[in-house]
Amino acid sequence: MKRAVPDRRAQAQRSALNALKRAQRLADKAGIELSDWEGEFLGSVADRVKTYGRAFGDPEKGAPGQALSAMQHRKLKEISAKAKGEPKAMPRGRGFLRKADKT
Protein backbone atom coordinates (compact mmCIF):
# COMPACT_ATOMS: atom_id res chain seq x y z
CA MET A 1 0.00 0.00 0.00
CA LYS A 2 1.43 3.36 -1.03
CA ARG A 3 1.12 6.42 1.14
CA ALA A 4 -0.04 9.66 -0.40
CA VAL A 5 2.81 12.10 -0.82
CA PRO A 6 1.79 15.48 0.54
CA ASP A 7 1.90 18.31 -1.95
CA ARG A 8 4.47 20.72 -0.48
CA ARG A 9 3.26 23.65 -2.53
CA ALA A 10 -0.31 23.18 -1.29
CA GLN A 11 0.96 22.81 2.27
CA ALA A 12 2.93 26.06 1.97
CA GLN A 13 -0.13 27.80 0.56
CA ARG A 14 -2.39 26.60 3.41
CA SER A 15 0.25 27.49 5.98
CA ALA A 16 0.64 31.03 4.62
CA LEU A 17 -3.13 31.59 4.47
CA ASN A 18 -3.53 30.33 8.04
CA ALA A 19 -0.72 32.59 9.28
CA LEU A 20 -2.31 35.62 7.58
CA LYS A 21 -5.73 34.82 9.09
CA ARG A 22 -4.16 34.21 12.50
CA ALA A 23 -2.42 37.60 12.45
CA GLN A 24 -5.69 39.35 11.55
CA ARG A 25 -7.63 37.46 14.24
CA LEU A 26 -5.00 38.27 16.88
CA ALA A 27 -5.18 41.97 16.06
CA ASP A 28 -8.99 41.96 16.11
CA LYS A 29 -9.16 40.00 19.36
CA ALA A 30 -6.60 42.21 21.12
CA GLY A 31 -8.33 45.36 19.90
CA ILE A 32 -5.13 46.60 18.29
CA GLU A 33 -5.78 48.69 15.24
CA LEU A 34 -3.47 47.87 12.37
CA SER A 35 -2.30 50.69 10.13
CA ASP A 36 -3.88 51.03 6.69
CA TRP A 37 -0.70 49.63 5.16
CA GLU A 38 -0.71 46.55 7.42
CA GLY A 39 -4.37 45.80 6.73
CA GLU A 40 -3.86 46.20 3.00
CA PHE A 41 -0.74 44.01 3.18
CA LEU A 42 -2.61 41.15 4.86
CA GLY A 43 -5.48 41.35 2.38
CA SER A 44 -3.43 41.65 -0.79
CA VAL A 45 -0.99 38.89 0.17
CA ALA A 46 -3.89 36.56 1.03
CA ASP A 47 -5.53 37.32 -2.34
CA ARG A 48 -2.31 36.62 -4.24
CA VAL A 49 -1.72 33.35 -2.37
CA LYS A 50 -5.30 32.21 -3.11
CA THR A 51 -5.05 33.19 -6.78
CA TYR A 52 -1.49 32.20 -7.70
CA GLY A 53 -0.43 29.85 -4.90
CA ARG A 54 2.33 32.25 -3.88
CA ALA A 55 2.55 35.95 -3.11
CA PHE A 56 5.66 36.87 -5.08
CA GLY A 57 6.62 36.54 -8.70
CA ASP A 58 10.41 36.75 -8.63
CA PRO A 59 11.91 33.32 -7.81
CA GLU A 60 15.01 35.03 -6.40
CA LYS A 61 12.98 36.44 -3.52
CA GLY A 62 11.99 33.12 -1.97
CA ALA A 63 12.34 29.37 -2.07
CA PRO A 64 10.48 27.56 -4.87
CA GLY A 65 8.12 25.70 -2.51
CA GLN A 66 7.27 28.70 -0.34
CA ALA A 67 4.15 30.83 -0.61
CA LEU A 68 5.67 33.98 0.96
CA SER A 69 8.95 35.70 0.18
CA ALA A 70 11.48 36.21 2.95
CA MET A 71 10.51 39.88 3.39
CA GLN A 72 6.77 39.10 3.37
CA HIS A 73 7.37 36.47 6.04
CA ARG A 74 9.33 39.00 8.10
CA LYS A 75 6.58 41.63 7.86
CA LEU A 76 3.97 39.04 8.80
CA LYS A 77 5.98 38.21 11.92
CA GLU A 78 6.19 41.92 12.79
CA ILE A 79 2.41 42.34 12.40
CA SER A 80 1.78 39.24 14.54
CA ALA A 81 4.12 40.52 17.23
CA LYS A 82 2.34 43.89 17.20
CA ALA A 83 -1.01 42.11 17.55
CA LYS A 84 0.31 40.10 20.50
CA GLY A 85 1.54 43.28 22.16
CA GLU A 86 5.19 42.24 22.12
CA PRO A 87 7.78 45.02 22.21
CA LYS A 88 9.50 45.98 18.97
CA ALA A 89 12.85 44.39 18.28
CA MET A 90 15.85 46.58 18.97
CA PRO A 91 17.39 47.90 15.75
CA ARG A 92 20.69 46.26 14.96
CA GLY A 93 23.92 47.74 13.75
CA ARG A 94 24.20 50.82 15.92
CA GLY A 95 25.56 49.20 19.08
CA PHE A 96 26.06 51.24 22.20
CA LEU A 97 26.85 54.88 21.68
CA ARG A 98 28.72 57.05 24.10
CA LYS A 99 27.30 60.46 24.91
CA ALA A 100 30.01 62.16 22.83
CA ASP A 101 29.16 59.99 19.78
CA LYS A 102 25.43 60.78 19.70
CA THR A 103 24.32 63.39 17.20
Give an overview in words:
- With 103 residues, the protein is mostly helical.
- It is 53% helix and 0% strand.
- Helix 1 (8-30) packs antiparallel against helix 2 (36-52) and helix 1 (8-30) runs parallel beside helix 3.
- It is globular, with a radius of gyration of 18 Å.
Short summary:
With about 100 residues, this protein is mainly α.
Quaternary form: single chain
User: Unreliable segments (pLDDT under 50, ≥5 consecutive)?
Assistant: none
Strand content: under 5%
Helix-strand makeup class = mainly alpha
Gap between N and C termini: 70 Å
* Overall pLDDT level: 83
Rg over C-alpha atoms, rounded to the nearest angstrom: 18 Å
How does the major sheet shape up? none
Can you count the beta strands? 0
Shape: globular
Number of helices: 3
Q: Helical proportion?
A: 40-55%
Series of H and E elements? HHH
Number of self-contained structural domains: 1
Which helices and strands, and how do they pair?
Layout: H1 8-30, H2 36-52, H3 70-84
Kindly list the characteristics that best describe this protein.
mainly alpha; 53% helix; 3 helices; 103 residues
